[in-house]
Write a structure and sequence with these properties.
1% strand; globular; 2 strands; mainly alpha
Length: 414
């Protein structure tokens, strides 16, 4: 039968719209509903006449548009900060990152070892369980209007720290899984290149602010937008070629342009693209999961989810407090970084290519799906969670603004 890719794309957008309307009606985060909408359709759904909800033919296009959504999300998040603010927080970010990795990577190693899985599978699962989803974290921060929160600076820094870890870890694991060995020199070069690229973009961007102000002084919104998107996608694409996540490249561009005098104009133009393309990303993520293959991995995935919730919460609270944040802000850090996504799926694909245990693919899919749904929920309900855990851990109650009595919440708000 003839393939109607444009028609399929229209159906996908209609399904996404329905999920958005339902999320609005329920006053619920749109992220989990978009993922579940993608999961409800896909290759396991039979075709009815020209209505093909399997999206097999249009999946590559939807996936590409979703990748753009991640770039716009991270770029927008970078706009809410500045290079100066992030560089000043460098020491705190390093401390937070080391604490986070020490706790979560240890859990990721011990869990598959206890299951008796071989060493290559252990290393793959450790990576799956350690790295947060930049796309989901960014979407939730924007959706809940938390971009201006003090602790969000730390969360963004932690995302960048994790990306350096990814550059090193993926080099090691891919070498072990695909070839059985890895070069220490190549690993070192990969890590050095990733760090050098991020620091270089931030420092050079800061020096070039006057030049960027002149270059972006473009009267036409159309040409201004083309210049903006050209720079964004070029830098993000280049970062991918040197094994730094494209999302981090987009974040760096946003951090640099946040210090220009065109900040408000950029922010105004980017919002519609951010919302449209990011919705396609989460839908395509759900579309990539086959629900019929998940049953064998249910119990390992649930156990891994519980361990991840504990590890992320503990590392967020400990590192947040160690960096001088309030108890409430530290709780926000621990809950916001819970979601798993892109990197976990990449590692599962690597395991499949390397002919590792077949259970790793459904395990990763179910694990990521559960945390992709739970992460936004936990972040949204952080105020309620703080109020319930506060008396247990003896966290200080404070007075909410405009009220004269004590509440067991923190100054940062919900």
């Amino acid at each position: 039968m003839e393939h109607y890719i444009l028609f399929e794309l229209g159906l996908a957008i209609c399904i996404i719209t329905a999920a958005g309307l339902l999320a609005s009606r329920l006053r619920f985060s749109i992220v989990p509903l978009l993922i579940l909408a993608g999961l409800a359709v896909g290759p396991h759904i039979p075709q009815f006449w020209i209505i093909d909800l399997s999206f097999i033919n249009s999946a590559p296009l939807i996936d590409f548009m979703g990748r753009l959504g991640v770039l716009y999300l991270m770029f927008y998040l970078g706009l809410e900060f500045s290079v100066g603010r992030l560089l000043k927080a460098g020491r705190a970010i390093l401390k937070t990152g080391l604490i986070y990795m020490a706790i979560n990577f240890s859990i990721g190693i011990l869990f598959p070892l206890l299951l008796g899985w071989p060493i290559k599978e252990v290393l793959v699962v450790a990576g799956i369980m350690t790295i947060s989803s930049s796309a989901i974290v960014a979407k939730v921060l924007v959706e809940l209007k938390r971009a201006a929160r003090p602790e969000t600076e730390m969360i963004l820094g932690l995302m960048m720290f994790q990306d350096v870890f990814v550059a090193i870890y993926l080099s090691i694991v891919s070498g072990l899984v695909l070839t059985g060995s890895t070069s220490s020199l190549e690993v070192f070069k990969s890590a050095l290149l990733a760090v050098g690229f991020m620091v270089g973009v931030l420092l050079l961007g800061r020096k070039l602010i006057p030049l960027l102000n002149r270059l972006l002084d473009i009267p036409s919104d159309e040409v201004f937008m083309l210049a903006l998107f050209g720079a964004l996608i070029t830098v993000a694409g280049f970062s991918e070629t040197i094994h730094v996540a494209e999302a981090i490249g987009a974040l760096l561009v946003g951090l640099v342009l946040a210090e220009t005098e065109h900040f408000e104009r950029i922010e105004h133009l980017i919002v519609p693209f951010r919302d449209f393309f990011s919705a396609l990303f989460f839908f395509s993520f759900g579309l990539s999961i086959d629900p019929l293959a998940l049953t064998d991995a249910v119990w390992p995935a649930i156990a891994a989810v519980l361990l991840t919730l504990i590890g992320n919460f503990a590392s967020g609270v400990i590192s947040g407090r160690a960096s001088g944040y309030s108890h409430r802000a530290a709780v926000n850090i621990g809950l916001t970084i819970t979601s798993r996504g892109e990197f976990s799926i990449i590692l599962a694909g690597l395991a499949k290519t390397g002919a590792l245990l077949p259970i790793l693919q459904p395990f990763a899919a179910l694990y990521v799906l559960i945390l992709a749904v739970l992460g936004p929920l936990l972040t949204k309900e952080s105020k309620w969670i703080y109020s319930k855990l506060g008396p247990v851990f003896k966290w200080p109650p404070i007075v909410e603004k405009g009220k004269g009595k004590h509440k067991n919440v923190a100054a940062a708000g919900s």
